Amino acid sequence: MTKVADIFKRKGFSNVTVLPESTVRDALKLMAEKNIGSVVVMREDTYLGLFTERDYARKVILQGKSSSKIAVSEIMSEHLPTVSPGHSLEDCMEIMTRHNIRYLPVFEGLAYYGIISIIDVVKETILAQQDRIEHLENYIHSAF
């Protein structure tokens, strides 16, 4: 069974965070530079929330607010579910579907480990299926 840790083995670690007082504009610039759709909001080692492109679209743009005047803490998503590196991808898909979210913060104990997206989960699921198919094909060919 494929685990969250397998995603990080493939894609590596890029733990991008912002402070809660960072402006939305600064967070968006960072996200654009890193080509990511979300960023974890932390103060020192304390997880506070998650800022996503969806938060920006719904809580800034649609409400006519200025991204250079609003702090990330004012619009970030809080109290989201989290997972550990040992969670299965099936668990993640169920959590993301139930909560209608695209990103899951990952923690090992209280330590921030990284973040996964629904795209990460889909990619890893496809790779695992391709690997299974290859193993089965090799088994079938070796039997004859």
Task: Sum up the overall morphology in one term.
Answer: elongated
What structural class do the secondary elements suggest? Answer: alpha+beta
**Strand proportion:** 15-25%
Q: Give a short account of the largest sheet.
A: 3 strands, mixed
Q: Which residue ranges are poorly predicted, with pLDDT under 50 across at least 5 consecutive positions?
A: none
- Class, according to the CATH hierarchy? Alpha Beta
How much is the average pLDDT? Answer: 91
Order of helices and strands: HEHEEHHHEEH
Kindly report the name of the CATH homologous superfamily: CBS-domain
Radius of gyration: 18 Å
Q: Spatial order of the strands in the main sheet? A: 1-2-3
Which CATH architecture? Roll
Helical proportion? 40-55%
Instruction: Tell me the total number of β-strands.
Output: 5
| CATH T-level fold name | CBS-domain
Q: Work out the helix count.
A: 6
Question: Any idea how many domains?
Answer: 1
Terminal Cα span = 28 Å
What is the multimeric organization of the chains shown?
single chain
